[in-house]
């Protein structure tokens, strides 16, 4: 290994894990119930992006009504997130209306589920510079696009969060195999922690008759001990905490100002910087 690579630091996930897995499924449809069961059976976690003024639209891919939506997601380890009140293109309606779409959606979901709802998936992938700039003021912590990266990278900008791939993507099988059986340490460069971020709509498994695709993947992933299973917002908050670490000029000490313990790898060793604490790295 080159000396300069030896000096690089890499994000490690809770427990020092090198890989993280998350799911993001849209629209609040009846098929979500089966997806929740599959995730739960394997200890996996995901984020479900819900509208709040389309509960009477069952004909639209089997959307759930208000009560069914609440029963499906209440008390679950999964995250509920914003998808706009009425699933409009946020970048095509007047800006004040876009604000209402997000804020009404947030007020409703927070009131219904009794927790802070701070994630967003852009309906129809509709966003613009103006929309993105509004999100922090609306209490939105991150927003997901539908622009697949086909890799395991973490987003530079959480308001333009690109997923790894849709489960229907031709790349899914190869990526799943690499993620489950490979390791960032096998990369010559870029040995940063891996995030496999899968998105889609659960009704597509009904439409395509291929629930076994996700069942088989979930079973294989759930059996792995080296993967952190997390919701979108858990990942966003953890990565932000990692990025907020403050290092000494000689790189031998680090302070973690966040409320989360943070793991990182340096010179082949994994360290945990406690919440609000400072540590020194072991010299070579
Ligand atoms: Zn949608």
Describe this structure in words.
It is a single chain. By secondary structure, this protein is of the alpha/beta class. The chain has two domains: 20-232, TIM Barrel, CATH 3.20.20; 244-280, no CATH class. The chain is 31% helix and 20% strand. The chain contains nine helices and 14 strands. The chain has helices at 3-6, 32-41, 66-73, 95-113, 129-134, 172-181, 203-208, 211-222, 232-243, and strands at 9-12, 19-26, 46-50, 79-82, 119-121, 142-144, 165-166, 194-200, 227-229, 246-247, 253-255, 262-266, 269-273, 278-280. The strands form four sheets. Strands 2, 3, 4, 7, 8 and 9 form a six-stranded parallel β-sheet that branches. The chain has a three-stranded antiparallel β-sheet with strand order 1-12-13. The chain is globular, with a radius of gyration of 20 Å. The mean pLDDT is 95. It binds zinc ion. Residues 26-27, 83, 87, 123 line the site of zinc ion. Zinc ion is lined by residues 26-27, 83, 87, 123.
């Amino acid at each position: 290994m080159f000396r300069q690579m030896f000096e690089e630091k890499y994000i490690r996930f809770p427990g020092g894990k090198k890989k993280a897995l998350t799911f993001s499924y849209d629209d609040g449809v009846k098929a979500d119930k089966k997806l929740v069961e599959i995730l739960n059976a394997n200890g996996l976690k995901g984020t479900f992006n819900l509208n709040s003024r389309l509960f009477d639209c069952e004909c639209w891919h089997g959307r759930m009504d208000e009560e069914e939506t609440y029963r499906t997601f209440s008390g679950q380890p999964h995250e509920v997130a914003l998808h706009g009140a009425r699933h409009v293109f946020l970048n095509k309606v007047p800006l004040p209306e876009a604000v209402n779409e997000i804020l009404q959606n947030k007020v409703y979901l927070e009131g219904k589920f009794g927790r802070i709802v701070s994630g967003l998936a852009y309906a129809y992938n509709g966003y613009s510079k103006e929309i993105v700039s509004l999100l922090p003021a609306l209490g939105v912590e991150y927003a997901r696009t539908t622009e697949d990266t086909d890799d395991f990278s973490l987003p530079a900008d959480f308001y333009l969060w690109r997923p790894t791939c849709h489960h229907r993507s031709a790349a899914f099988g190869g990526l799943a195999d690499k993620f489950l059986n490979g390791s960032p340490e096998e990369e010559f460069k870029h040995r940063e922690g891996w995030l496999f971020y899968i998105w889609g709509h659960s009704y597509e498994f009904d439409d395509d008759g291929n629930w076994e695709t996700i069942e088989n993947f979930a079973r294989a992933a759930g059996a792995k001990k080296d993967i952190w299973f997390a919701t979108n917002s858990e990942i966003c908050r953890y990565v932000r905490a990692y990025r907020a670490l403050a290092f000494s000029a000689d790189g031998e000490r680090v302070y973690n100002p966040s409320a989360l313990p943070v793991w990182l790898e340096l010179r082949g060793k994994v360290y945990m910087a406690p919440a609000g604490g400072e540590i020194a790295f072991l010299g070579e």
